[in-house]
Amino acid sequence: MEKLKKGDDVIVTTGRDKGKRGTVLRRIDDGHVVVEGVNRVKKHVRPNPMKGQTGGIVDKEMPIHVSNVALFNPQTKQADRVGIKVLPDGRRVRVFKSNGEMVDAK
Fold first, then answer.
1. What is the DSSP code string of the chain?
2. Greatest CA separation found in the chain?
3. Residue 56: which residues within 8 A CB-CB, separation 6 or more?
């Protein structure tokens, strides 16, 4: 089970964008995620008439390693580590390490 999923609210813990909050847009692989508004770079794009794409310089979010982000805990309003707990009925759920609350409980 992944500790970070698409749609999770995360905080960047290290690097150039430390302290920024954003939503996970997608997972690239086991170790990288793309976070909204984080790790933005300017990419030079060639025009592609087949796709109707104009050329120029565009801002783009690049992947960031999962070790550099932490899940945002709404109760404590801080970044928190995530663990996995098996419930008595056999389901596996994500829980916050600080208070043991379930992540997906809304």
1. --SS-TT-EEEE-SSTTTT-EEEEEEE-SSSEEEETTSSEEEEEE--BTTTTB--EEEEEE--EEGGGEEEEETTTTEEE-EEEEE-TTS-EEEEETTT--BSS--
2. 57
3. 44, 45
CA distances from 72 to 22, 41, 45 (A): 9, 24, 34
Render pLDDT for 17-69 as a digit per residue (tens, 0 to 9): 999 999 999 999 999 999 999 999 999 999 999 998 899 999 999 999 999 99
67, 63, 73: which is closest to 36 by C-alpha? Answer: 63
Cβ contact 45:71 at 8 Å: no
- What letter represents residue 42's amino acid? K
